[in-house]
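User: Small ask, check this?
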Amino acid sequence: MFTARCAALLAFPIAAAAVPAAAQLSPAEQRIPAAVEAETETVEDFLEEIVNVNSGSLNVEGVRRVGQMVREAFEPLGFTAEWIDMAETGRAGHLVLTHEGSGEGKRMLLIGHLDTVFEPDSPFQRYELDPDDPNRAIGPGVADDKGGIAVLLSALSAMKAAGTLAPADIKIVLTGDEERPGSPLDVARRDLIEAGRWADVALGFEGLSVDADGLEYGTIARRSSTSWTLTTTGRQAHSSGVFSDASGYGAIYEMVRILDDWRSDVREGNLTFNVGVMGGGTTAEIDDRGLAISSSGKTNVIAQTAVARGGLRTLTPEQDADVRAKMQAIVALNLPGTDAELVFSDDGYPAMAPKEANRALLGELNEVSRDLGLPELGEWDPARRGAADISFVSEYVDAALAGMATDGGNSHAPGEYVLLDSITRQAKRMAVLMSRLALQPRD
């Protein structure tokens, strides 16, 4: 088991690893690289164990079991654990781990998730090493986000061994429904938001962004994600009268007008509004999940109803409010004989808006990378990442930084993989960064 092996490792002093001559690591920080490397096999074994337990978002028992395994791994490091049951949202719950430090340094919120997109009926269920590349581990959720949990465990274990964890005030929130959030969302994310109000800094431990050239990036901003439903209506009548004052244009023409005006008149930087499903005719009804539309009609009958549902992604609250107003204004310009209604969902992910404090935190991480002799991280384009749990707390903390976990690929698909050496690399970066944050006075 991880806990026994980890305890054995921590019983031995860790020698300082070789670092570049120009590095400005403190004596305690110099012990971190060797501490990370000493437990590499242990952390990889732990990753294999949790990957081999199915924790699809709807697998309540599986998510709870992984939560218990994680709890048993972190408690020897001095964390107290609390399981937040989420039966009222139809999900398993969340694991909150707390480390009480000196109370003087930056309060850190570390965010990840226990669940995966792979439910028990998926054929993709087991962890394995790529026979052609032993650095590549394949398995459901191995990168998203069980690899992130492995980075957390490796970093915090190294801090413990190096003596830098003691002063650190840390809360870890590992949600059990990130891939398919429970409803209502204000309940499902209530405890995460409470932790965000407590924290000074938030760090998101989902996958590291890496470009085609292998260059690594940090994420200082993420767009929102919400859904909308557009319903248009017209006068059902014989098609020979279409476009006339008496019969009007019908629901489908009104739908097309609105969608095309959005496309041509509302587009701007970092904004997307996708149409995911659409149907229209004499009748058109969308199901309770908003995923399927049943419609029927005849070629000689003007369409009476049309329905479309899609997604909206914005970078800031201001952009979100402005875009919604523009979309509604276009909706109100009805063609003759038609009407339209646009409704935005209440259960959406907010934006992690860019701010200079986030960029400054990335700068601190790059200083850490330089001191460790590792490459610096660039600033990732927010339009290239989806929404995430860190967005719920970014407005409350002084600074937030996402994408702090592993390098991998094929997320959400059979063949998902993680590059194992990225666990070690990221653990070193994050352990030193958190060690420094723990010593920075609160504002």
